[in-house]
Every structure is written in C-alpha cells, then in structure tokens.
Write a structure and sequence with these properties.
Structural class: alpha/beta
Bound molecules: uridine-5'-diphosphate-glucuronic acid
CATH architecture of one domain: 3-Layer(aba) Sandwich
Number of helices: 20
Distance between the termini: 61 Å
CATH topology of one domain: Rossmann fold
CATH superfamily of one domain: NAD(P)-binding Rossmann-like Domain
Strand content: 5-15%
Strand order of the largest sheet: 3-2-1-4-5-6
CATH class of one domain: Alpha Beta
Number of strands: 14
Helix content: 40-55%
Largest sheet: 6 strands, parallel
Shape: globular
Length: 442
C-alpha cells in the first residue's frame, strides 16, 4: 500500500523503513532538509541497532523515498502516518501538541478525498477527536485514527517488526480495515490486535508508560527504605520479582528513568487528567516523578559523602552518558544530570559512553569526555557507574584500579558484581545497598 510517514525521528524513521521492508511504498517527510538528504542516501540520523542496514536496503529497493514537502505527501498517498514529537510545553507539565496540529492543518487542504491520517505520536487523550473535527471541516471525506507506538529505543527495529501488540483507535470500519491490511504480516505472525475508540487507544499508550514508570519508582522507593532499614534492594527486587504476578522487568533499582518519554509522558498525563477533572485519580504520578528526581539528588549526595563532603578540586569519572544502554540518546539523561550537578559543585568530571559522547558533548560542553574507560578514570577520586552498558560489567576492577587515585566506585545502576570489585580492593557503594557499601546509612 502507498503511505507517507511524516516526521522522521525515532518513531517515524523506523516505522517508514519497516513498512517499506514489508512491501509498502513509503514516502518519509521531514522539514529538516539535511536529515532528508542523509536519509535519501540511506543514512540513519540516530544510533539504533539494525537501522542503517534496513534503511540502505529499503532506499535501494525504491520502496522508500524522502521529501520535505507535506503537499508532496498529500499527493503521494491516501494514508498518512503522523510521527512528529510532542515535547513538554515550556514552563508547564502538559504535552505540546503544536507539531501534530501543524501537520494536520497543513495537510488538510491538500489531502485526496477519502484519506486516512493515522497519528502515532503520544498525545493527550481527546486529541484524535479534536483534530478529527478540524480535518473534517476542511476535508469532509477524510478521517483520523490513532495508532500509538510502543517501541523502545535501542530495540526500535525489532519492536516495530514484532510488536507486543498493535492498538488502533478508529472511528470507522474502513479505517480499521486499512490498518489491518497494512499490518497484515504482523497479524499473521500472531501479534495481538486491539481495535478500539480513539480515546482508549490514546490512553493505552500513556497508561502503559505510567505503569512502567511507577514500577521503576516503586523499586527506587524500596531502595530508600532499604537504606534506612539496613536491607538490600537488589536481593529484594530479585525476590519480589520472582512472583510472576509482579515480574522482574522494570524492577531494576538505581538512578531511575530518563529519556524523551517517561518523564514528560507522566507529567502530561497528570496534566491532562487534571483538565478532565480526574486529576486526583492519578495524583500518585506526581510522587512517581518526585521519587525519580530524588534518586538523582540522592546519588549526588552519596557521591559527595563518599569523597568526604565536598567535590571542590576533585576528579570524578562518569561511566555512561546515554539515558539508558544501547542508545546514544541523552535527552533527560539521569547520568548527565548527575555528572553536571557534580561539576557545578567544583569537580572536574570526565565522562565515557560507548555511543553517546557526541550527543553529550553537544548538550553539556562543560563536562570532559573520554573515548575509553581508563582515560575517563585516570586519576579519579571516585568513579560513578551511571548507565548500565553491558561493557561496564566486563571492566577488570584490578586493571582499572591501577589508573584511579582512589579505588572507590558508586554503582548508581546496581548492576556491577560487588564481590569482584571489593576483592580487587575497591569500595563499592550503591543506593539501597547499605550492607554492600558498609558506609552509607542516612
Ligand atoms: C519507553 C517504553 O518502554 C516504550 O514502550 C515506549 O514506546 C517509549 O518509552 C515511548 O513512549 O516512546 P524508552 O524510553 O526507549 O521506552 O526506554 P525504556 O527502556 O522504557 O527505559 C526508560 C528509562 O527507564 C531508562 O532511563 C531506563 O534506564 C530506566 N529503567 C528501565 C530503570 O531505571 N529501571 C528499569 O528497571 C527499567
């Protein structure tokens, strides 16, 4: 089927390439000319496993092209996916849907009769209904549906090819039929398909992210209790998660969540619920957010405590800059938040990351950067493990011990093997693990 994908960020570029890969004829549209030029040569704008190969293949096949014009898009197809960003509004908690509105408004006068616009962006509940009315006023025979995206960064291609579920919020049987047809290869392979009204579909997305964020903050709240009670949060999480009704996933304690989705999505959800008069029902999301932010502060506090009360004049190493492993994304990265807070208190902070150094340097030019772990840790008074890249678990504590000034590491992701670090003469500390640290109880 012919389709356009408007917005070539994480969601759009992967969706466009995967749709072309399963045989559809796709035009990707973005206002960024540089990005469109690179994409037209099959070059991915982001680090995402498998994406470069997929783009190169689908562009070469002729089934994937790119343009900067939404009028081209309106002419190209009668099916349009909207994948533009919905960041947090400046100075507020709600989602800024102006980019989504602008796409629909600019397309509306040009769409072919009978067009279907399908939103994939994360939006406040009620957006489809609001935009549907606006579209119909200009293009009476066209309609809007919502098909939220659940892909995780770092697994974007795999998640798009084989999603856990496909959710579509539609106002007509025809819209549902079109979406069933385009996702047919996934449906044949057994991916569950939920067809519902637009409001429910919009809510499935934000409810899913809110639940996962709550699970992370829950275990981090337990870490605070463990610190107070002299218990160990890592063992606690393993034992609690062994109950299959709870499960281990997203029960990893540590520095908490960041990135372009969870923090802004839970705030936007709470703000929208407030507008709808249901704010009280999900007021706990404010606490989820607060617990998450507190983890960053507590990590800085623990680090300061470990170096004797002041960072002034010290050299601190930060392992990790991305908001999570397998990603080069540094948006709202807890790792960089902690690193820059420590720098502001007078330390020289040198950061390593396997993929995100370029992005980090761009946003945090005041930090120093190193291309390998020993360089980052040279002469360090304290090493901070801030992003759980698998390669950091492979570090030899004995070898790294020979480059630092103090064999002291704060495992802010609670994934390092404490015993092997300690047996190489290191002091390893972690929030929620007072017995491991043996020194942090307040
Ligand atoms: C998240 C969701 O997992 C996706 O389903 C969703 O589509 C996406 O947001 C979105 O709304 O676009 P993503 O932001 O890529 O995906 O990252 P996650 O893997 O969910 O991790 C989010 C944050 O939680 C990371 O900072 C990660 O380090 C942290 N995390 C995750 C924990 O602190 N503990 C855990 O146990 C798991």
């Amino acid at each position: 089927m012919r389709m356009t994908v408007i917005g070539t960020g994480y969601v759009g570029v992967v969706h466009a390439a995967c749709m072309a890969d399963i045989g559809h004829d796709v035009l990707g549209v973005d206002i960024d000319e540089g990005r469109v030029a690179a994409l037209s040569e099959g070059k991915a704008p982001i680090y995402e496993p498998g994406l470069n190969e997929l783009l190169a293949r689908t562009v070469r096949s002729g089934r994937l092209r790119f343009s900067t014009s939404t009028t081209d898009a309106a002419r190209f197809a009668r099916l349009h996916f909207v994948c533009v960003g919905t960041p947090q509004v400046r100075g507020g908690e709600a989602a800024d849907v102006s980019h989504v509105d602008a796409v629909v408004d600019s397309m509306a006068p040009h769409v072919q009769p009978g067009s279907l616009i399908v939103g994939k962006s994360t939006v406040p509940v009620g957006t489809t209904a609001r935009l549907g009315a606006r579209l119909r006023a200009v293009a009476p025979h066209s309609e809007i549906a919502w098909n939220p995206e659940f892909l995780r960064e770092g697994f974007a291609v795999a998640d798009t090819r084989r999603p856990e579920r496909i959710v579509v919020g539609v106002e007509s049987r025809r819209a549902e039929a079109v979406l069933r047809e385009i996702y047919q290869p996934m449906l044949i392979s057994g991916v569950p398909f939920f067809s519902t009204d637009p409001a429910t579909a919009e809510l499935v997305k934000v409810a899913s992210n809110a639940f996962l964020a709550t699970k992370i903050s829950f275990i981090n709240a337990m870490a605070e209790v463990c610190d107070a009670a002299g218990a160990d949060v890592v063992t606690l999480a393993e034992a609690v998660g062994a109950d299959p009704r709870i499960g281990h996933r997203f029960l990893q304690p540590g520095l908490g969540f960041g990135g372009s989705c969870f923090p802004k999505d839970i705030r936007a959800f709470a703000a929208r619920a407030e507008e709808l008069g249901a704010g009280e029902a999900i007021s706990f999301l404010h606490q989820v957010d607060e617990i998450n932010t507190r983890q960053r502060r507590r990590t800085v506090d623990l680090a300061r405590h470990l170096v004797g009360g002041s960072f002034a004049g010290l050299r601190i190493a930060g392992l990790g800059a991305a908001f999570k492993p397998e990603s080069d994304d540094v948006r709202d990265s807890p790792a960089l938040d902690v690193a820059s807070a420590i720098r502001r208190e007078g330390a020289e902070v040198r950061v390593h990351d396997p993929e995100a150094v370029d992005n980090a340097r761009h946003r945090f030019p005041g930090l120093q950067y190193a291309l390998d772990v020993p360089k980052a840790c040279e002469g360090a008074d304290l090493v901070l493990h801030l992003t759980a890249w698998p390669e950091y678990r492979e570090i030899s504590p004995a070898e790294l011990g020979s480059v630092v000034r103090n064999r002291q590491i704060l495992d802010a992701r609670a994934t390092l093997d404490a015993a092997s670090w300690r047996s190489a003469g290191w002091t390893l500390s972690a929030l929620g693990r007072p017995k491991i640290t043996g020194m942090y109880t307040d």
